[in-house]
TrEMBL record, chain A:
Belongs to the complex I subunit 4 family. The keyword Transmembrane applies. It holds the Pfam family Proton_antipo_M. GO terms for cellular component: endomembrane system; membrane. PANTHER family: NADH-UBIQUINONE OXIDOREDUCTASE CHAIN 4 (PTHR43507:SF1). This is Oxidoreductase. Residues 143-200, 271-479 form the NADH:quinone oxidoreductase/Mrp antiporter transmembrane domain. It is found in: Endomembrane system; Membrane. It comes from the Bacteria. The keyword Amino-acid biosynthesis does not apply. It comes from Roseivirga seohaensis. The lineage of its organism: Bacteria, Pseudomonadati, Bacteroidota, Cytophagia, Cytophagales. InterPro entries: NADH_Q_OxRdtase_chainM/4, NADH_UbQ_OxRdtase, ND/Mrp_TM. One of its GO terms (molecular function) is NADH dehydrogenase activity. It is a multi-pass membrane protein.
TrEMBL record, chain B:
GO terms for cellular component: endomembrane system; membrane. One of its GO terms (molecular function) is NADH dehydrogenase (ubiquinone) activity. Signal peptide: none annotated. Pfam families: Proton_antipo_M (PF00361), Proton_antipo_N (PF00662). It is a multi-pass membrane protein. This is NADH-quinone oxidoreductase subunit L. The lineage of its organism: Bacteria, Pseudomonadati, Bacteroidota, Cytophagia, Cytophagales. It comes from Roseivirga seohaensis. It comes from the Bacteria. Residues 75-125 form the NADH-Ubiquinone oxidoreductase (complex I) chain 5 N-terminal domain. It is found in: Endomembrane system; Membrane. GO terms for biological process: ATP synthesis coupled electron transport; electron transport coupled proton transport. Keywords: Membrane, Transmembrane, Transmembrane helix. Residues 143-439 form the NADH:quinone oxidoreductase/Mrp antiporter transmembrane domain.
Amino acid sequence: MIENLLTYIIFTPLLGALVVLLLPQSKTSSFKWVALVALGVTLVLSVLAVTSFDATVEGLTNSEEQLQLVDKAEWFSVELGSLGKFSVDYFVGVDGLNLSLLLLAAIVLFIGAISSFGIKQKQKGYFGLYLLLSTSVLGCFVALDFFLFYLFFEFMLLPMYFLIGIWGGPKREYAAIKFFLYTLVGSILILIVMIGLYNSVYDPVKTGLEAGVIENVSEASPDMISSIQYAVQAGQMESENIVKSFNMISMADDANYLPDSFLGKNSYGEIFGQSARWIAFLALLIGFAIKLPAFPFHTWLPDAHVEAPTAVSVVLAGILLKIGGYGIIRTAFSFFPDSAFHYSWLIGFFGLFSILYGAMNALAQKDLKRLIAYSSVSHMGFVLLGLAAMTVEGVTGAIYQMFSHGLISSMLFLLVGVLYDRTHDRGIENYGGLASKMPKFTILITIAFFASLGLPGFSGFIAELMVFIGAFKSSTVIGAIPYWMPVVATLGLVLGAGYYLWTLQRMFFGKFWVKDKAWRETLVDLNAREYVMLVPLVILIIWFGIYPATLLDLINNSVEGFTQLLILSVE
Amino acid sequence: MIDLNDIISTTEFNPLIYWIIALMAIPLLSFFTTTFLKKIAPIWGTLLLGVNLSISIYLASQYWDTTGVSIRGNWFSIGDTQLTYSFLIDQLALIMLVVVNFISVLVHFFSMEYMRHDENKPRYFGLLGLFTFSMLGIILFYDLLFIFIFWELVGLSSFLLIGFWFEKKSASLAANKAFIMNRIGDLGFITGLMILYSQFQTFDLEGIKSLTVLSSIEDGNWVAEYFKNGELVRNGLDGRWLSAAGIALFCGAVGKSAQFPLQVWLPDAMEGPTPVSALIHAATMVAAGVFMIARIFVILDAQALEVVAVVGAITAFMAAVAAFSQFDIKKVLAYSTISQLGYMVLAMGVGAYTAGLFHLVTHAMFKAGLFLSAGTIIHQLHQLEDKDINFDPQDMRVMGGLRKYMPVTFICFLICALALAGLPGFSGFLSKDAILLNTAVWIDEKGGGFYFIEVLAFATVLITAFYTFRMIFLVFTGDFRLPKLIPANTTLKPLQEGNIFLQLPMILLAIGSLSVIFGFTMKAENTWFYSLIQDPIFLVPESYAAFNLMDLPHEWFENLHFRVLAISIALALSGVVIAYFLFRPGAKFSASFVEQREPIGVIAQISFYHWYQNALYEKIILKFILWKVKRIAWFDRVILDGFINFIAKFQVVFAHLIAWFDRNIIDGFVHLTTYTTGRVGQLTRSVQSGNVQAYIMAALAFLILMLIWLLF
C-alpha cells in the first residue's frame, strides 16, 4: 500500500509532460516512449489502487468514512470577516462510484498512447498535450473538492482543443472550436451552481476547529460533527466562525447546508418562481449532459470525433464522455436527490430519446466514424435511463455501461483508425468485401460490432441488461420512471443490430471492391502494434461480460450507499 | 414463507458438473482449435462431437430415471440481489442433449464430404462447434438469463453460418435478416425478463416457478410476496403484466422458432450450406423456441397460451400454403419447417406440452433427414456443373427421375417425407396425431371462435401431404429433365449416388423417422416418450390459469381419437392423390414450366411469395424506416446543428454590432465629449487673452450685469 497513491496517479503524466518539454527537439523518437512509460506507470498504480480497494466498506455517499485512498490537505482559504471564511482543499479519494472510471481512464489512456505512435508531426507538442490531458482527466475522476474538480474539468479543454485543432482532419478548426464552446457553456452552468453551493455549504469539521469546539481534525467524531451541525442549523454558531467549503462529500449532506441558505433543502430560494434547488439541479444536469452527450446537446460529438486523430477520438469516447455521466452521479444526483426525483421522468425520457435518436442517426450515416459517434450517443442514453430509474440495478447498470462503453468504443475507434491509416478514407460506401482482403481485421471489427450491439458474452450486454431491469423495477420500488420507458428502450437494441450488421454487410462482405485502385496495395491486415492495442481490449470486454463480479463486487456497497441517499430524500 | 435465497442457494458439489462442463467445453474447443488445424479440421471437429454424443448417451443412461438433478451457484450480485447460474438435468434436457448431439455429429460427418472442396472448411467446422456449444447452453441451463445468453449466441452462430459464403451478397443479406428478425423477437424476451425480475428478483427458473405459485391476484394486481435476506418483499404489478410476461417471452420464441410474423428470415437462411440448414434451421436452433416455451410453460397464463395457439396455427397454415408452389427444394423444406414449428407452438398453446415436445423430436429426425437427402442431391448435381453447363442445382425443375440414379437417397427421402406427411408407420404420424387430438379436445372445451384453429390445423395436414409428394414426384419420378435443358453441344457427366459420408447420416435419420423407434403403437401416449415426459400443471394464480388438459375427462380423448385419426389420414392421403394427379410421372408440364420465374395464377403467386409478407417488410416498412432515419439525420444536421451554428453566427454578428456600437457610439460619445471640452476650452481660452483692455471690458460688462440683477 503506497501513501498518496492517487496523487501519484494524477501527477505522473504531468511529470511525463515536463520531461517531454525539457527534452530537446532533436530527440523526436523519445517523446512517445516517455508518454508510454508515464502512462504505463499510471496504469500500474491504478491497478494497485483497485486491488487495494476494500470492497467491504459501507456508507452513504455523503459520508467521508466510506472514501478510500484519501489525500486531503488545505489548499488555501480566504477570510471573509463577519461572513466567516471559505476554504479550498486538495481532496482526492475513491469510492465505488469513481473507482471503475479511474481504472478505465488509466487503461484507455495507455492504449491511446500506443495508438499515438503513428503521429508523425510535431510530436513534442502532441505528447506533451496528451500527457497534460491525462493528468486532468485522471484528476477529474478522483477530485472530491468541487473547486479542484472544476479546475481539472476546465483544464481538460485546453489540451483537447489543441489536439483536435492541430492534429485533426480537414475541418479540425471548426470541430475544435465547436467542442470548446459547447463544453464551455456547460462549464459556465456548472460554475454558477458551484458558486451558489459554496455560498450555502459549510464544512462542519473546519467550522468546529474555527470555533474552537475541537482542537484538531482527529477529534471530529461523527457525534461531534452532528453536534456542530446541530449548532449551525440552530443558528447558535457565530457567523464569523463558519467555514464555507467546496467539499463535494459535504455538499451531499443536507445538514451541511446553512440554515436559510439559497440552495439548502428547506430554503425558500426561488428563481423564476421555481425552487432554486431544482434550477441548480437542472443547471448541473445540462452542464454534464453536454459532456455525456445527451440529446439535444450532442451535435459537437460527431464533428469532434470525425476530425480528431485516432488516439484523441479514443480518449474522447472512451473517457471524456464518462465525465459527463460521473458528474451527474457525483454532483447533480448526490447534491440534489430530491430534485433528481422531481425530474426523473424527464431524465429518463431524454435517456430513452437519446438511445433511439442516436441509433436512428447512426443508421443514416455514410462515414464510419460518424456512425460510431452516434452509436455513442445511443449508448450514453442508457446511462441516463439507468440513473433516472434510481434503483440499485439501474445505477449499477449506468456505471457498468460507462465502463463497458469506454472499452468497446475505444476498440471501435482504434479499428476505424486502422482503416483510416491505410487509405485516409472512412466512407462506408467506398469499400466492399474487406473480409477477403483483411480477414483478421474483419474478425476484430466483427467482435467489436457485436460487443457494441449488446451481444451476451460481452460487457455491454451486462450493462444494458442491468439498466433494463433496473429501469423496469423503478416503478415498483420508487416510482421514478414509468414501465414503458425501458420497454420502448429495447428498440435501441434492434436499431443497434441494424446499423452494425448493415455496415458489416456493406463494407466487409460481398466481393472485394474499393473505390480507389491504389488502396488495393495499402490495405494490409493488422500489424503487431495494432494487435497489442486491440487484443487486450477484446480480452477485457469478454472478461467483464462473463465475470462482472470482478467490478461489481467492488462497487456494490457504494452504489447501495448512493441509491440509499436517493431513496432517503424521496421519503 | 419462503425465502428467495433458500430457493436459489448454491447446491452441494455434484460431480455431474464435470460432465456438464465437458459437454459445453468440447464444442467450444472445436471452435477455438479448428482454425489452426487446416487439413484435419473436419475429422477433429467430428471426433470431438462424437465424444460429446457419447457423454450425452452416458448421461442419459445414468439419469434416465431420476426426477431431475439441479446444480446451482452464484454468478454475481447487484446490491443485495444475488444472480445465479443453474443447470437442470431432467428427462427433457437429456432427450434434447442426445438429439442435438446426434444430429450435430451426423451433420459434421456429412459435411466432411459436402464441404470437401471448400477452402474455408476450418472456419465452417469451428462455427458448427460454436453453434453446438450455444445450443447445449440453452438445453442445460435452467435460468432464464442464461437461456437468453445462449439464445443470442445461437443467433450469432446462425448469423455466421448463414453468411458463411459471405462473398455472395444474398448470403450476407440473409444473415442480417435472420439476426435482426431474431433480435426483434428478443425485445420481447428481454421485456419478459424485466417483468419477471421486477416481481421475483431472480432469473432462476426454479425460483421463478416457486414464487409464481405463491403469487396471487389481489384487486386485479399481481402480487408476489416472499422473504429475501430475511426481509419481507411485496411486489405488485397490474395483473395484465402476468399475461404480458408470458406473451413477451413467447415473442422470443416467435423470432427463434420462425413464427408469424417474424418467420420471413428462415427461407432466406437457406443461403447457408445445406448441412447447416439441416442442423440449425430444421432440427435444433429453430426448435429452441419451442424448448424455451416448454421451460416457461407453467408460468404462462390462459391469455398468453391463447396467443401462442393462435400464432402457431396461423404459422402452420401460412407456411404450408407457401411451400406448395416453390421450385427450390430447400425453400420447400424451409417453409415446411416453419409449418411444422407452427404445429409445435400450437401444441404448446393448447396445453399439449408433451405432444409438442414429441413433435419437436420426431421433426428433428425426419426434417434433418430430408435436408441431408436434399443436400446429397444438390451436392451430386453440383458435380455436373462446369464452365459450359450452368444451372441451379436446387431447382426441382432440373431434376426428375432421380430415383434411378440415387436409389438410397430416394428411399431415405421417401421415409422422411412420409413422416412429414404424417402417414401411419412413421414417427411424424404419432406426434402430429397427438397434437391434432389435443387441439380438438382443447377447442371442444374452449369453444367459441377458436374453431378456426382446428380448421387451419387440419387444412395444413392436407397441404403438407400435397407439397411433400409434389416434391417427391418432381424430384424422383418421371424423366431426368436436366439433359434436355443444357446446350445441345455439351454432354453431361453421369449422375451418381453420394458416397458413404453422405449416405450414412441419411440412413440413420431415415431409421429414426420410423414410428417403431418410439414403440409398436398407433397412439402417441403409448410411446416411451410419453412415459418419460408428462404435461405439467400450470402454476399461475388460479384466476389467470388455463385449464389443464389432463383434468378433462379421459373419455373425451377416447371419443375424439378415432375421428381425428380417420380425418387426418384421409386428408393426408387426399393430399398425396392430388399431388399424384398434378405431378405424376407422366404428367405434362407446360413448356414454360421450367423457365418461368414465378408460377402462374393468383393463388400460386400468393403461395410463391409467401403472402407477400417479404414485400410488405422490405418494400414498405424497411423503406419507410430508411426514409425516416434519413429525415432524422437531416434534422440533426440541418435543424439542430444548424440552430447551434446559427447561434454561433448570430453571436459573431452581434459581436460585430457591439464593436460598431463601441466604435461609433460609445467611442463617438467620448470623442464628442473631448471635442466639446476642447471647443469649450478654446472658447474660454480665448477669454484669457492676456489683453488688459479686454479684461477691463469684461469686468465692466459683468459689473453692469450684476447691477441690473440687483436693481430688478
